[in-house]
Amino acid sequence: GRTGSTTNYMLSPAGPGIECLTLAAGASQDSNDVAGTVEDKEMTMGARYTMGNITAGYQVSEIQSGTTGAAGYNGTFYGVAVNVNENLSVSYNIADLEVDNPSSTNVTEETTGISAAYSMGSASIRLSHNEADNVSGVTGAKDDNTEISLALSF
Question: What is the pTM of this model?
Fold first, then answer.
């Protein structure tokens, strides 16, 4: 049978003077005890900073498959969220995911999204719109999604 192991690490420091800043880093590695196989590796690092009613975040990630001929992924993600008041919040996010295609040119999937939410008592209405280019690493493939929802709590 197939044997192996997985190792994961996560670090998120905290302390006086950096209450508004959250840093995080993580890594994962899958080791196979099968001759001729390569290890799967994942890594991510990110930072989030909050000042008053504004929060901004940034993250980079990398996923490399140990399978011969499999695509790897390099991602950069960032966004900002604003609590306009106690009832209204808006956010804008961008994600760039480069597909390392071993048999052709690398392609970057580019996604942007904007969201807004308004809450009043037990009711919340939410609006979200996302657009993507080069979906799943396919040049020219486009997708968009708009969602409106109403949530009621009883």
Answer: 0.79
